[in-house]
Specification:
5-stranded antiparallel sheet, alpha+beta, single chain, 14 helices, 24% helix
């Protein structure tokens, strides 16, 4: 196996980085030795291959396989033999009959119809070069050459690596190795989610998790209002019910909860930006290019919402961050545009925040109390200086101009977001937009642009029919207005809401948004010695990106150790 760490890229950070944290604190450098011991006793890693069975073969295919220096094996009615010096002439296959080398005899009879046949690593290369031809003819003992029309073969198998099954097995193997150790419990505790307030929507009596709310508002000075589109609510819903629940190891301070109904024509969509401004859009235009720092075009990944993400994992740009640069065709007379994305924060970003907080050690509560008294503008500036939100820039004649940022949305669910961009001073028939953030802090699923004018719509704030806390007390008074009267949730507490919205007018449909404001605190205990040397570095512009890259390299170094160890099997 030549690239185990690349195959493990999606899960390795959440396995090895927590282990690094734990083992580093208990005994320096012991983690590498521990992992080597684990892998030494592992026999989990398997390679799978596909047979690609076909009922026939033609001359062109046979010639192509010969040019690729494949190893031919013929399955006669009475035996199997190797077939060397094969060539095609006049739709017939000619060659020399030879014994099958021992290295190629182990996988002559794969499971019929299965794409998950396993091959031991040491036999992988010789097996994946095999082509198996099946014929009803018997072979005589003295035959040393053989010729047959290609049409006489009733089956052909062209072995190749089953990358999906192999990768999945290797991922499961690594997870299994880690889970089998005493470190597993600690690992689970470090698997970070954005807990924040958790929204559960009701459908036919069943509540399903939908999203987190105002992620990142971890102090009262970061309190903000979130505008969450409720895409699962039917436009003609007669009853809307949901719960807002406390997150794990947290307490919630919920200031306001409103259900906003936006009525509009059927041929448009609506979204609110982070400031609460409502915009309509129609048919989005996909980017003509979407280039990362390495000039890799992400256009194919970003053209539709399909859970294929670009994770801002390219080399740092001139500003010290990861980015993607989008180019869109632009009508000559367009004086504004609306940038629509579908995105989420990453689990890796959650791990980085947890590591950052751990540096405060026993002084964490003192530090948080200081943040509770800080100027919100200073806190916002620090977040944007670190590019923790998703920063948006537009290219002008004077260089990149900052537009705004997409607020943190957490890593539990992705969502649609919109931003208006002024294009009056953008010359030409294209517009260039840069999305920028700290290394691996965002997953971007979709990016599109719309130049249409905003259409008519009406807004209604729906009064709740019922607002009950989990102890059956009425919580409506605390949540009706933005007045610093908070509903406080702890432990397993939640608040349930029920609405009976009016039906939209004729020829219109309704889109719904949950407008909620507040903040939350982590109650997870932080202990240990304060690491001032590391903490001072975070005062520097863009240090979180550098920090994230350094920690991710630690992960890759561990994956390389595993890779080298498995290669020797």
């Amino acid at each position: 196996m030549k690239s185990l760490h690349s195959k493990l890229a999606g899960v390795a950070p959440f396995i090895f980085f927590p282990l690094i944290i734990i083992l580093r604190k208990k005994r320096n450098a012991v983690y590498a030795f521990a992992l080597l011991i684990m892998i030494s006793f592992s026999s989990c890693f398997l390679t799978f291959y596909r047979t690609n069975s076909k009922p026939s073969i033609d001359s062109a295919t046979a010639s192509k396989l010969r040019s690729e220096k494949k190893h031919f094996i013929i399955h006669f009615s009475n035996t199997e033999k190797g077939f060397e010096d094969a060539y095609v002439s006049n739709d017939s296959l000619f060659g020399k009959i030879v014994p099958i080398p021992p290295s190629q005899t182990r996988y002559l009879h794969p499971k019929s119809g299965s794409n998950k046949n396993a091959v031991r690593h040491k036999y992988k290369d010789s097996t994946l070069m095999q082509v198996h031809l099946y014929i009803n003819t018997a072979l005589s003992e003295n035959d040393s050459v053989f010729a047959a029309s290609v049409s006489s073969f009733y089956r052909v198998d062209v072995y190749e690596l089953n990358k999906g099954a192999t990768t999945a097995n290797h991922i499961v193997s690594v997870v299994g190795i880690v889970a089998a150790t005493l470190l597993a419990a600690a690992f689970i505790g470090f698997l970070i989610e954005c807990n924040c307030p958790q929204l559960y929507m009701e459908n036919n009596g069943v509540y399903s998790f939908t999203s987190g709310l105002y992620s990142g508002a971890v102090y009262s000075t970061l309190e903000r209002t979130d505008y969450l589109p409720l895409n699962t609510v039917p436009f003609d819903a007669k009853d809307i019910s949901f719960k807002i629940a406390n997150g794990k190891n947290e307490e919630q301070f919920i200031n306001k909860v409103e259900l906003m109904q936006v009525n509009h024509s059927k041929d448009i969509n609506v979204l609110t930006d982070r400031h609460g401004n409502i915009f309509t859009y129609q048919k989005t235009v996909e980017p003509s290019s979407a280039l990362t720092g390495g000039q890799n075009d992400m256009k194919g990944i970003l053209k539709q919402t399909d859970e294929h993400y670009y994770s801002f994992n390219n080399d740092a740009n001139e500003d010290g961050f990861s980015d993607v640069r989008l180019t869109f065709d632009k009508p000559a007379n367009a004086d504004h545009a609306k940038l629509i994305i579908h995105a989420r924060n990453t689990y890796w970003g959650g791990l980085m925040h947890k590591e950052f907080v751990s540096y405060f050690g026993d002084d964490f509560e003192k530090w948080r109390a200081k943040q509770e008294q800080a100027d919100p503008k200073d806190l916002e500036k620090w977040q944007t200086d670190q590019a923790l939100p998703l920063m948006v820039y537009v290219k002008t004649n004077n260089g990149w101009k900052f537009v705004d940022y997409y607020q943190l949305v957490g890593n539990t669910a992705s969502r649609d977001m919109i931003m208006k961009v002024d294009t009056k001073n953008i010359p030409g028939n294209s517009i260039k937009i840069k999305l920028e953030t700290a290394y691996r802090f965002w997953d971007l699923d979709f990016a599109g642009i719309d130049y249409s004018d905003d259409q008519n719509f009406t807004i209604a704030v729906i009064e709740p029919a019922q607002v009950l806390k989990s102890d059956s007390t009425d919580a409506s008074g605390d949540l009706k207005t933005d007045d610093k009267q908070y509903a406080h949730l702890q432990n397993d507490q939640f608040i349930s809401f029920r609405y009976s919205p009016p039906q939209p007018a004729a020829n219109t449909v309704a889109s719904y948004f949950l407008v909620s404001g507040g903040y939350y605190h982590s109650i997870e205990q932080v202990t240990g010695k304060v690491n001032y040397n590391e903490l001072f570095k975070f005062k520097n512009h863009g240090y979180f990106d550098k920090f994230s890259r350094e920690k991710y390299k630690e992960v890759q170094d561990i994956a390389d150790v595993l890779n080298n160890k498995v290669d020797k099997r």
